[in-house]
């Protein structure tokens, strides 16, 4: 099904206005078109205060890999390729590859929809060991939201399930941190978009709305940033 960029952007802008978020015009720093469904702007004072309150006193989120906590000083998630939220307290389990992640999440993801999405991924893909290091938007299970460290859905990835109500996580909560590392995303669900925030001092926080509807965002360098430049390696918090 084809949805025009104009229709998608209009719907997203209306949703942001209802939520009290200011959407600024896009000033791309390249000749490439803006990503349909992405609305870049700044948060209102009320929205900014709410988000900061939600994450201000948030404890560090532990990340486990092969049964052990990942060293908080690690720059590569301890060698893991995929980390997924497995509890409403934010706890993450990390895996060597997507096949391993799907097999675990099909049993242990925190919501029925998240378990179903992982199970659907793992069923026909039991022989993916040869492509374990390949990364693609197809690796993000249905009902999950995924952020990749590199453009084009490559590199290490964090992913979150869909809960009944949206949750906000500071990407610096994770141990090790994923702050200022996101470069591409996939919102693999039909409704409820995702919001990214960049915390700034002395000026309104930049805000990025990523529309839902199984929408892919392959390169944050193609999404303009409120104060110039682009959204690559800018995200400090996610509301999913």
Fraction in helix: 10-25%
Strand content: 25-35%
How are helices and strands ordered from N to C? HEEHEEEEHHEEEEEEEEE
N-end to C-end Cα span = 24 Å
Question: What oligomeric arrangement do these chains adopt?
Answer: single chain
Fold-level CATH name: Gamma-B Crystallin, domain 1
What is the strand tally?
15
In the CATH hierarchy, what is the architecture at level 2? Sandwich
CATH class: Mainly Beta
Task: Sketch the major β-sheet.
Answer: 9 strands, mixed
Any idea what the radius of gyration is? 17 Å
Rough outline: globular
Mean pLDDT metric: 84
Number of domains: 1
Annotation field: number of helices: 4
Describe, in plain words, how this protein is organized in 3D.
With 240 residues, the chain is of the alpha+beta class. The chain has a single domain (5-239), classed as Crystallins (Gamma-B Crystallin, domain 1). It is 20% helix and 27% strand. It contains four helices and 15 strands. The chain has helices at residues 5-19, 45-56, 98-108, 112-122, and strands at 21-23, 38-43, 61-65, 68-69, 82-85, 92-95, 144-150, 154-161, 168-170, 174-175, 184-188, 194-197, 206-210, 215-217, 237-239. Strands 3, 4, 5, 6, 7, 8, 10, 11 and 14 form a nine-stranded mixed sheet that branches. A hairpin with an 8-residue loop joins β12 and β13 (206-210). α3 (98-108) runs antiparallel to α4. The longest helix has 15 residues, at 5-19. The two termini are 24 Å apart.
């Amino acid at each position: 099904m084809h949805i025009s960029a104009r229709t998608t952007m209009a719907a997203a802008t209306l949703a942001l206005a209802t939520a009290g978020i200011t959407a600024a015009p896009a000033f791309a720093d390249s000749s490439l078109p803006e990503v349909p469904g992405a609305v870049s702007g700044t948060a209102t004072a009320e929205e900014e205060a709410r988000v900061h309150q939600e994450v201000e006193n948030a404890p560090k989120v532990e990340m486990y890999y092969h049964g052990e906590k990942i060293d908080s000083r690690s720059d590569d998630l301890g060698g893991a390729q995929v980390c997924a939220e497995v509890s409403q307290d934010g706890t993450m389990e990390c895996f060597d590859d997507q096949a391993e992640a799907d097999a675990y999440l099909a049993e242990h993801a925190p919501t029925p929809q998240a378990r179903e999405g992982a199970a659907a991924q793992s069923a026909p893909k039991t022989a993916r060991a040869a492509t374990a290091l390949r990364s693609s938007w197809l690796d993000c299970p249905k009902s999950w939201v995924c952020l990749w460290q590199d453009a084009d859905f490559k590199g290490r990835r964090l992913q979150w399930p869909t809960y009944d109500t949206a949750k906000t996580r500071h990407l610096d909560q994770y141990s090790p941190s994923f702050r200022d590392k996101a470069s591409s995303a996939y919102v693999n669900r039909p409704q409820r978009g995702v919001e990214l925030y960049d915390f700034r001092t002395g000026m309104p926080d930049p805000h990025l709305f990523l529309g839902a509807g199984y929408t892919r965002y392959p390169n944050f360098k193609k999404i303009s940033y409120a104060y110039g430049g682009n959204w690559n390696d800018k995200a400090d918090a996610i509301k999913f």
